[in-house]
Amino acid sequence: MTIDPTAITFSVVIPHLNQPEFLARCLASLAAGHHQPDEILVVDNGSDVMPHDICAAFDGVTLLREKTPGPGPARNLGVAKSTGSILAFIDADCLADPVWLSVAAHEMANPDATVLGGDVRIALINPEKLTMLEAYESIYAYRMDRYIAREGFTGTGNLVVRRTVLEKVGPFAGLSVAEDRDWGQRATAMGYKIRYVAQMKVYHPARATFGELRQKWDRHMAHDFTDARTAKNGKLKWLAKSLAMGLSPLAEIPRILMSDRVSGLRSKMLTFGALVKIRAYRAKRMFQLMAGMNPDRLSGRWNRPQK
Fold it and tell me: Across-strand partners of 120?
């Protein structure tokens, strides 16, 4: 027996930190959507200036403040203050496709649907002339279909979940782990099926510099190495993975050539060039961790150390 999609109540939760222009664009994309949320909760996590004016410009938006650093705690506060039966999570720097919540409502009309992960595409500045990072991230970033199928989680920048399920799985973690992977894998371990919905799209800007991309991989590698050094044969496996990382771009050539996420020889060559550069960096960092670098140096912080 299906549920009437019009009877579903949506609470959209958006963590925010010092991204006022992006937040305004995100809220505008939600306002332009075909299915309007019942409420939007923006949870600021320590911005230099609270986005009062931005949130006040849109109907149905509540602005909250979470002092504990991290997008996970910010989302948890949004959940605690929300009222909808369905919780939809999007990041402040993302744009919602006009049918984002319409598709989510259609999927959640099936009572067997519990957790949905949607497609995340790159918001291109000029689709006719991609930058190197836009080309690279179009193929290699935010691949929620692969994360769901291979690793049992989806990104919290495009996550829809029933409130009853989130309450059973528990809150999002803090800065000590990758909170989206942690939450998704806890849900999977409890038997909940994360369904990938390709039509449920949001658009994320590509990183502006390689420095931002390196910071992302620093955080991931720090978390992964912390797990690896406590696992059986973890360090040996880490060493093997480190050795393979530098040569791995050669094996990716067929994937780049066959991908429908970028078109044209120029864009595909840019993708390969960026791939070589970032995987060489990852291999270097992995060897440094193996040699004794403290992973806490790489883990980064969502905003500032907690006092």
Answer: 202
Q: What string of DSSP letters covers 55-93?
A: HHTSTTEEEEE--SSSHHHHHHHHHHH---SEEEEE-TT
Report the relative pairing of strands 61-65 and 39-44 from DSSP bridges: parallel
H-helix or E-strand spanning residue 41: strand 39-44
Give Rg (Cα) of the chain: 20
- Does the global pTM surpass 0.90? no
First-last CA distance in the chain = 50
Given the DSSP bridges, would you call strands 10-16 and 86-90 parallel, antiparallel or unpaired?
A: parallel
> In this predicted model, what pLDDT tens digit does every residue of 192-216 receive, in sequence order?
999 999 999 999 999 889 998 898 8
Looking at domain 5-205, its CATH architecture is Alpha-Beta Complex (3.90)
Which stretches does DSSP call E strand in 94-246?
Answer: 95-96, 115-123, 158-162, 194-205
Per-position b or e across 1-32, b if 16+ CB within 10 A of its CB: eeeeeeebebbbbbbbbebbebbbbbbebbbe
142: left (phi > 0), else alpha (psi -120 to 50), else beta?
left
DSSP, collapsed to helix, strand or coil, labels residue 134 as: helix
What does the domain layout of the chain look like in residue ranges? Answer: 5-205, 210-299
Token duo for residue 298: 């790489």
Q: Which of 46, 44, 19 is nearest to 304 (CA)?
A: 46
Q: Return all residues near 165 (Cβ < 8 A) that are at least 6 apart.
A: 114, 115, 187, 192
Q: Is the pLDDT of residue 62 over 60?
A: yes
Contact 94, 121 (CB under 8 A): no
